[in-house]
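Translate structure to sequence.
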């Protein structure tokens, strides 16, 4: 009986040791999974808060009446996209591509076109003076 009890005692010891090892492994896996779950939860929470912030900003911009570039009038868009014809004419004059008389003739033509556009659109019809021509040339 002594031999049987020693084998039984060793078997119980191995069983207890196996249970301890399994509980340690289970604890470590539980901690690792809880850390992974916490990180995923934080990422999802930040994504949801970011979407909420974007929705608030979008709603605010819609309600504030600010228009998108597609809704801006052509005159505003043209001034930011490319230089106006007067600016191009002035740069050609400065570069020496145009003589004084040619510059003045082109400037008068541009100003006449501008006057015609204003008159057609119902805005104030202006009249080009020599001072305005000089002012535009001096720019």
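Result:
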């Amino acid at each position: 009986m002594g031999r049987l009890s020693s084998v039984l005692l060793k078997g119980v010891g191995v069983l207890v040791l196996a249970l301890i090892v399994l509980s340690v492994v289970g604890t470590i896996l539980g901690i690792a999974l809880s850390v992974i779950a916490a990180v995923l939860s934080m990422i999802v929470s930040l994504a949801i808060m970011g979407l909420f912030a974007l929705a608030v900003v979008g709603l605010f911009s819609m309600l504030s009446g600010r228009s998108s570039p597609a809704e801006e009038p052509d005159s505003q868009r043209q001034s930011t996209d490319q230089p106006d014809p007067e600016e191009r004419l002035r740069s050609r004059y400065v570069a020496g591509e145009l003589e004084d008389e040619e510059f003045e003739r082109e400037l008068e033509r541009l100003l006449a076109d501008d006057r015609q556009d204003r008159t057609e659109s119902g805005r104030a019809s202006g009249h080009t003076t020599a001072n305005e021509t000089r002012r535009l040339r001096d720019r």
